[in-house]
C-alpha cells in the first residue's frame, strides 16, 4: 500500500522542473502575499500572548475524546465521513467557482494520497486523521488542504491549464489573516501545508522564501519537535523541508530554524 501511494504522489523533489504554473504572475504574487500575511501576523502580537493561545488550541489538535471517535469513523469509512463533514459541517461560504463535487474529490485525494506522504514518519497519522477534523472549524486550513490536493492532482495528470489549486490557494491566504489575528497556533498547520504546496509548484532553489514564514510562526508559538500532538507532527514536516533545502544548497545556506 505504501509503495502504491508513494509511486503516485509527486514530491517536491520529483517535480522540480519549472512549468507554466510556477511562472504564473498571480502565483508569484500570492507567494509574496502569504509571506507578508505571516510576518505581519507575528509582528502584531507579542510572544507572551501567543503562549496563552497555544495552550488553548492544542487540545483540539491532539484529538479530544469526541475527536477520537470521529477519527475512527473517518478511518473506517475510508475518509467519506471526513469529506462530508469538512464541506457541510464547516459551513464554509463557498466563494469560489469550483463545483462542489470537484472539492469532494480533492478532499478524498487528500486522505488517500496526499496525507500519507506527509504522515510518512507519523504513526498517529495526524495529517490524514486529525487535519480533516480540524478543517471543519478552520476555513483557511480547509482551503489549504483543497489547494494542496488539487495541485498534486494537476501535477500528476500534467495539467498545464488547470488553476483550481491557484484559486484555492488564494482563498486560503485571504482567510489566514484573521486566524493569525486571533493568535491561533493551529495556523501553523495551514502555513506548513501551503509551504509544501509552494515547494511542489515552484523552483526548489527558492526553498528559503517558501519556509521563512513558517519558521517565524514556529518561533513565535514556541512549537518544537517535542510539543506533542498535531503541532509536533507539523514541526517534523517542516523540518524535512528545511533538511531538503540544506541539501539543495549543498551547505551554502544554513537552516532557517536551528534544528540541531
Describe this structure in words.
The protein has 260 residues and is mainly alpha-helical. It has helices spanning 2-8, 25-43, 47-61, 65-76, 80-88, 100-118, 126-135, 139-156, 164-181, 187-201, 207-221, 229-248. The chain contains 12 helices and no strands. Helix 5 packs across helix 6 and helix 10 (187-201) packs parallel to helix 12 (229-248).
Write the layout of secondary structure elements.
Elements: H1 2-8, H2 25-43, H3 47-61, H4 65-76, H5 80-88, H6 100-118, H7 126-135, H8 139-156, H9 164-181, H10 187-201, H11 207-221, H12 229-248
Region (Disordered): 50-77
GO biological process, one term: positive regulation of transcription by RNA polymerase II
GO molecular function, one term: transcription cis-regulatory region binding
Characteristic key phrases:
single chain, 260 residues, mainly alpha, 12 helices, 0% strand, globular, DNA-binding transcription factor activity, Fun_TF, Transcription factor domain-containing protein
Structural class determined from secondary elements = mainly alpha
Question: Which parts are unreliable, with pLDDT below 50 for 5 consecutive residues or more?
Answer: 1-16, 50-82
Using only CA atoms, what is the Rg? 17 Å
Tally of helical runs: 12
How many β strands by DSSP? 0
Largest sheet: none
Termini Cα gap: 33 Å
Overall form: globular
Order of helices and strands: HHHHHHHHHHHH
The helical percent reads 55-70%
Strand content: under 5%
Task: Compute the average pLDDT.
Answer: 76
